[in-house]
Amino acid sequence: MNSYVELMIDPTLIQIRQKIQAQRLTLQEAAAAIGIGASALERHLSGEYVRSDSMAKYRLWLEGAQPQSSLQPTPRERSLTEEDSSLPSPPIQGMDTLSIAPEKPLNVVDLFCGCGGMSLGFERFDGGRVYRVAMALDIEAPMVRVFNDNHPSPSGNLPIARQSDITDFMSEAEIQGYYLDHLARTTGDTALAEELGKLSNGGIPGLRKRLEELDHDFLENLYAHRSQPDYVSAIRKLGSATLGQTSVTGFHSATKLPSSGGSYPKLGPLIWHQDGNIPEAVQAINVTLDEKLLRSCRSDMRKLWDSEAGKLETRAAGAGRGQLASAAERINKFLAFLESPVMRAIKTLWVEWRAKREALRRSFFEAPLIQAALKSIYEDGRQVTVLLGGPPCQGFSRIGRGKIRSLKEQSVHVHEDEDSVDSRNQLMHQYVLFVAALAPKVFLFENVRHFQAVVKAEGIEFDAADILAEAIESVSERGLGYAVSRKIVVASEHAVPQARERFVMAGVRKELSKSLSSMDAAAWCLSLQRRKAVPLQVALEELPVPNFSNQELQEPILEKPHRPRRNEAAVPDQASDVYRAWAFRGTVVDAHLARPPRRDDEAFFSLMGPGKRWMDYRCDEAPTLQRIATLLSKLDDELRTCPELGERLGISSDEVSNLAASADGSLTLRLLLESIPPQPGELQHHLLTTTYLRKREGAHGDWLSRMDPAQPSKTIVSHMAKDTYAFVHPTLPRTLSVREAARVQSFPDDYRFGSVGLVDGFRVVGNAVPPLLSLQFAQRVAQVLAKENATSGPMKIFHAAHPAEPEQLAII
Length: 812
Fold this sequence. Notes:
The chain is of the alpha/beta class. Among the domains are: 1-90, no CATH class; 172-365, no CATH class; 536-599 and 705-769, DNA Methylase, Chain A, domain 2, CATH 3.90.120; 619-691, no CATH class. Helices cover 46% and strands 8% of the residues. It has 34 helices and 15 strands. The strands form five sheets. The protein has a seven-stranded mixed sheet with strand order 4-3-2-5-6-10-9, sandwiched between helices. A two-stranded antiparallel sheet has the order 1-15. The longest helix has 27 residues, at 291-317.
């Protein structure tokens, strides 16, 4: 074992590895003997964080004690090959000196791309000479807008990022067709466009033209139905509050029915809809759809409508009090509206439109000749090398190991799986489908830290990541195979000024390299160099005074204060220097927009010390407070038994009782807030309520906190779009701006967020992958690809002497 690994792994784990090797145990046998999961043992031996209870098991095993309980390996685990059961290998000697220069940049696809944090690191690695982001997909318009503001399309004919619902894709062939059509139009590749146009039945341009006609006819007919007096009257009775209710808007989103109302209808994110101009010369596909296929599609659409209506009924039945009761009332009003004659007619219209649309796509992409042609075109130098993305996966952990077969089998038509009704599960199906369709050499899957939490299914304990890993091991009839490695990556350990923890899985094609095992390669992709933490104060350097607004207005460009010019040729060698070299670009910034603090909040922020949370000002264990509470309680008892005492002292029992109720741990907070003059027209500081004062460790006591300038920031989250009280500036009496949050996320200053305003700005920044982290993944992946092509192939191989930008040199 080399010194690099020893620095990463606790000495106890080194002894564990040595004992396993000495006893010649497989990974599963060792895990069973220790009493820990095999996947957890593998991660711990790779240098991942070990919880105290797991460390205790390791120490006991070293001392010869038997585990109190252990998980017995499943029949499948016992049948693992020797390669699969081997211990994780150490990082590869000499790998970090390699780099590549392909003849043309390698294609990268980013699913659930957000505003482009993960894409940016790959795109800017080595000056853009290694990778190019060929396509990015996300369902949210603000995310796509910011992405395209910063990742211009080479041709200008079609943006790189598309607002798409990836659950709409039905097959591997459709994904390949969509990608190739996108590639042709974004790059201006006329040869590729001609190939796609020569496919049978008018090709993909003809398919797009026919779908455009179907959508136009549906919208025209829908508008005619919605112009009828009965519909207009019913909409007026419903009111905007009902139509804007979350569950009601969710119904429209799930069914792809344009929002109910009186204006001309508009479709939301739907693949093959409004995705660019179609030349007038293109002829629409003219085929007679199979009636059996149409009946099947109509049945599927009716089930979808009825299922979504059933969800509304369930939500309405779970009514509570207050806002929940109001929501239930609105849902019930909308359910009654769905049963009206005019809406039944619209349902029939909608079913026919959706059925024809899906039948047309299935008829085209399920044709064997089309599938063979698309595969041939795709594999003719247009392949995707790297697939990025991580879908929301809270529901995936509930699928169970029995669903793995379904994940593998759904590569032809995902929607046939009745158990994937949870949209989050369906997103996971789709992720696996994209891996199967695009067959990238490497994929990176990123998600929340708790993605690999242990779950139980069919009497077996395992973690959610195991399901994904097993599902991806063999995802296609083409026999693809991936070796995977997973890790919890802490951003603050890699020059990002933020304590962000994320689950990352890397997958590498098993046949990728003859000179390097794919398991080693997958682990290497996640073996980022560790560095000292970059403090928050570094991230906030060189920024002007922000603008203040609560509105979603386009933010003007602000010029940064003048600073002495750095020596750009110098190679930074400290984490803070690495961060500055990456982030402090250009002389101006946009989106430096912060919420204006209330005057009373501004005064309270000024009283808070750096790094202090709301709950830190509680005094629950203070002896003086306990004595005050005891004295007030005794005085209250005396006043109740001796009323004349109260008359003599000029106090009442109720007054003392109310004062005693205030003598709890929040008394210090109460005193601080009472020292601040209330806003005009208010009787007291708006935070002087029981709801706020009772907050402590178990009640989000850090909901209001001042950041510590000497430490990395807490995790930047999308909730900042709603309030930023948890992110009070470390030295100024205000909360962070959008640009400051972007700095903490390691977005360079030249990355633009101004087109989405304050609220969406916080959302897109909070949901992003730190691009400086992505840059380091891009480097590791490039080194794996370089190792593959070290002896042959079109890529030139370089060593450390290869010129690179300062940030690449610093990270190697």
